[in-house]
Amino acid sequence: MSDSGANLWPIIIVAGVLTSFIVVGLINKSREGSDYLFAGRYIGRIGGGAAIASNWMSAASFLGMAGLIYLKGYFALAYVIGWTGGYVLLLVLMAGQIRRFGKYTAPDFVGERYGSSTARIISAVVSIGISLIYIIAQLKGIGMIFGWLFGLDYSRGLLLGAGAIISYVVVAGMLGVARNQQMQYFVLIVSFIVPLMYLAHSLGYFWLLPQFGYGVAIQDLAREFQVNLSAPFANGTLFQWVALCFTLMVGTAGLPHVLSRFYIVPNVRDARWSVAWGLFFIALIYWSAPAYAVFARLMEASAGMPEPSASARQMADIIVIRSAVMGQVPVWMVGILAAGATCAAFFTSAGLLITGASSFSHDIYYRVLNPHASEGSKMAVAKGATLVLAAIATLCAMKPPGMIAEITATAFALAGNTIFPAFLLGIWWGRANGNGVVAGMLTGMVLTFAEPLFGRIFPLAATIFPLTSSALCGAPIVILVIIIVSMLTPPPPEAMRQFLAREVHGRLERS
């Protein structure tokens, strides 16, 4: 798609939308270090839900999910079920308890709950690693979109997009990003749904609710072109599907930038309602993504290409935009769609850069290296860490190791094998101690990368712990390690056990 030259109207629309965000960000520019690091202040239940949804709607959701469904059909629904199911898990198991505990970041929780600087540092390193992997996936999406917009090759599109993100983060700060998140969600939902409705109408399907209309298109694909996207496990085994689904679920419940949203709500009830609203807003887009994939396959099959060509597979990550172009959706509407995709990748990257930077500046620099650091020095370290993290992610994104959603799934596997067990046992088992969680998180890091580390020597390791789906077997092992080591070493202080019983699981809700 980069060979067709620059797309003027989409560029103008994308630039206009991004500029509006930057202006709002500048108006609300952060001057306090705490605002820069911790995603702003309370913005209401629905606002919090919209913030959760917009924070969640990354390039993987907006672009990558449809791309995988386009290539793998039913198998890719594991992403839809896993990601939405993760929020249900959060709602049921941890949202209220995390708010009651009252710490600002995931490493802060681990450090305080387990009373261990080593555990805090490991948790911070894991948070930085998760952010880095996640950003690489977003940058791949940005590189492809900017390449299409400006008629550039992928590398130059990536550099242009990365430069825009870094400029925004440095100038606006996190307070601007947080307040923009409600507007971001409005842009995302409109830009995703309106072109889809036009596409469904032009293809002759039920366009008022294309989320229903594409079901007939699936039947047409199977009947007229023998393309069966709904066949279960045609592109993977039952174990692979369940492992991927489970990993995405527990990974969602362990992502640092998702967990941090609960620290800025005033009480437990608002924390739970924010998750419920966020789940509703997320489902609106997830319900729509498969329609783009099905319509794309239908248009290609009608043109004599029942299976995607090699070039089409390479561009599968932006099948949402390609399907709009193939369906001759008006160019201004394609521009709106591109603006939504850009916002999804752009602001997710910005949020993750700040989450990763806060893990270094707050949890390592301030908590461990320099406890007497001033707000100014903390801010300087945070911005420096942001630039370093962005530079590393951009270099890694030059040769992305997989599709957007697949790269993102690796970050979920790391979160599911480390932070999720630490939070789960930290909240629900008072006997878990620092020695146990250190051993558990180190085990989880090894298991997450068992396939590339040991897969060639021990093929069974690659089968049991696939890179994108390792938490099905990995998370239970990590939980077992934490339990065994905790039982063999001294218990945590009695004061912490009483705090968990009285404050975290008690009825002392502050409203």
UniProtKB/TrEMBL annotation:
TM region(s), chain numbering: 6-27, 48-70, 76-96, 117-137, 157-178, 185-208, 238-259, 271-289, 332-360, 380-401, 407-429, 436-458, 464-488
GO molecular function: transmembrane transporter activity
Membrane topology type: Multi-pass membrane protein
Annotated Gene Ontology cellular component terms: plasma membrane
CDD domains reported in the protein's UniProt record: SLC5sbd_u4 (cd11480)
Location of the protein in the cell: Membrane
Leader peptide range in chain numbering: none
Keywords assigned: Membrane, Transmembrane, Transmembrane helix, Transport
Sequence similarity: Belongs to the sodium:solute symporter (SSF) (TC 2.A.21) family.
Protein name (database record): VC_2705 family sodium/solute symporter
